[in-house]
Amino acid sequence: MGTLEVNVEVSARHVHLSQEDIEKLFGKGYELKKKKDIAGGFVAEERVTLTGPKRSMERVAILGPARKATQIELAATDARSLGVDAPIRLSGHTEGTPGIKITAANGNSVDTEEGCIVAQRHVHLTEEDAAKLGVEQNQVVELKIDTGMKRALTFGDVVCRIGGPATVVHLDTDEGNAACTGRACKGTVIAE
Ligand SMILES: [Zn+2]
Q1: Which of 21, 33, 41, 180 is the most exposed place for a label (fewest CB within 10 A)?
Q2: What total of structural domains would you count in the chain?
Q3: Where are the alpha helices (DSSP H) in the chain?
């Protein structure tokens, strides 16, 4: 059994947009404005409103650059509030998921046919750390978090995604709050 100390990051709800949807929302040939660099892309200055059958959520972040398909990443609590039955999926696997209405500040909107997911919790591993831990691509491991705030928790069903530039766990806000992580903390990955 291998263990590895890792950084844990918590992602709030956000959307990735296709170029087609960017243009429907912001105009022909539009490019998102970069507010802040993050691993693999950037946080855009623009924000959108999500409207589901039950309610709306304003000022939702857009992560750039444009993707092949629009994807709306929600915590399970968000999905329940909005009234969408978003399944747990790895990023990029949106086939057959529910859509949602996305509205820009200028009033333009797009009704996506699919794209709402609750992201499957996962750990990005460098090739080196994957070898150290003895895990293969898509192997499922556990993650233990204890921030000393009386919410120590071990998560199962953490999927290994090998080949990134850094080793980091990505959780959503429900998972982060359950373990009292705040925005970032340390955790231990445990592989059988
Ligand atoms: Zn990730």
Answers
A1: 33
A2: 2
A3: 19-26, 76-82, 127-133, 173-178
